[in-house]
Amino acid sequence: MIRAAGLLALALFILLPLAQAVMLSFVVTLPKDGLAEGAVGLMNYAAVLAAPELRAAMVNSAVYVVLNLLLCIAVALPAAYALARYRFVGDRHFLLLILVFRVTPPVVLSLPIFILFSKLGLVNSPVGIALVHCLFNLPVAIWILESFIRAVPRALDETAFLDGHSGASFFFRHLIPAIAPGIGVAAFFCFIFSWVEVVFARILTVTAGKPVTMAISAMFGFQTDMGMVMAMTCLSLLPGLGMIWLVRNHLARGFTLRA
Amino acid sequence: MQPHDNRAWLLLLPALLLLGVVGALPLLAVINYGFHDIFTLSDVQWVGVEWFGDILQSDRFLASLGRSLLFSALALSIQVPLGIMVALLLVGFGRRAIWGLMLCALPLVVPWNMIPMLWLGLVDARTGIVGPWLAAAGFDWKFTAWHTWALILTMDTWHWLGLVVVLAYAGLSAIPPAYRQAAAIDGASRWAIFRHIELPRISGALAIVLLLRFVDSFMIYIEAFTINAGGPDDATRFLTLELGEEIKGFSYGQAAARATLYFLFVLAVVWAFVIATRRTEETA
């Protein structure tokens, strides 16, 4: 009984702010196109999908998140394998180093990142955001993948090499299938830190290439169409919901401090 | 036991290269800027430790530091115990706990700049779902300092509780049932089970939760700023708000010095934490 009440209170606490947004997203809050204020329907969603800059923002966000996930996992896999399978001079120092980068506040680095990336021509492009988000996502990806690789018996490596597999073919044909859930979990945690991030996303998109977060910010003005803002917000939740659903059975693996 | 092989460093090279470009280089640059007065990028003058001295001696800095530390302490002391309690509650539901986990993870995928907007909408005295009741009860987040604090803390808890729950649940669900059965046979109290069986299993997850939550709450910016712009009367003026003002005011040298100080502070806390964890691991 107490447990059910606790769960109910939790659900209420989490869903209330979202309920408000979902409700508002179906209501016309700014009279336009002959629609009266207070009319209910899908008008806000239609308006969001009809706006070219908002559509472009969704594409930009999708591009940088996918790039970031691919980059993080491709770079984290060999590192995680090394940490899980070998001991070497400075292994603990490496773990401490990635922890330091994970906890470096983005605001601290925003200024030099902007200067460096404008020299490299990476401002206003999703590639720049994808790169810089590796700062906090790569450590997380390494921690998660390392724990999954550690859980795979070493015999898998040994039989594969005895069977004559090269390093690359072992990685793709044996290791990756064995830790596929780990890749999913790593992708999930990278996603939740990257899709919603605003500090780097703002500083790196001055005039173009704005992701969803910045496109929503740009919708605020003298007369803000709150219904449309909320419709855009609700749409921006969909990829996250998809990710949660995909990894639901492996979410419970989490990650732990390695230092 | 893992074999010793220093060639493993070759596998770390891509990661080191990437972190070098997006982490180490900018970090060195920001430290370097902190010792200069920067008018434009081509007009830069060495000023030594002047900025650092100015910042450390200003009362505003110390007041903001105090507020940020208090905010972090409150956020951690609410979110960590609450998250563990929710995780314990969910473990009791067995397979169905997955729905609870998904529910808790929901706020994690909301864009950070929209989280304060959602909460401002919710507590709006005219149109919010709970706003009119709160207003009737005398809740005034705009002009009463502790109400603003309560709102920001509630919002931050809403946002990050899921991370604590998911990571704590991960540790708890890995405990073999035999442990709990043995404890039940011994007649162990609920607290004894938590202290001696459950807590050791989630300590690794809690360590990372404590660190991540400390840094993120200590450096809270967009969310706190959107709620009340540091007000009322500077009551929610956290460390990052000052940094933001200096960057907006093109005072780059001073901003860089301040950023360096913040980084050193975070580094010191993380370092102390890691040393403490290693020591307890060795004695355990």
Question: Could you explain the architecture of this structure?
Answer:
The complex is a heterodimer of chains A (259) and B (284). Chain A has 259 residues and is mainly α. Chain A has one domain: MetI-like fold, CATH 1.10.3720. Chain A is built from 13 helices and no strands. The radius of gyration of chain A is 22 Å and the shape is globular. The relative contact order of chain A is 0.16. Chain B has 284 residues and is mainly alpha-helical. Helices cover 72% and strands 3% of the residues of chain B. Chain B has 12 helices and 2 strands. Chain B has a two-stranded antiparallel ribbon. In chain B, helix 7 crosses helix 9. The longest helix of chain B has 33 residues. Chain B is globular. The chains are: A mainly alpha (259), B mainly alpha (284). At the A-B interface, helix 1, helix 3, helix 4, helix 5 and helix 7 of A face helix 1, helix 4, helix 5, helix 7 and helix 9 of B.
Overview in brief:
The complex is a heterodimer of chains A (259) and B (284). With 259 residues, chain A is an all-alpha fold.
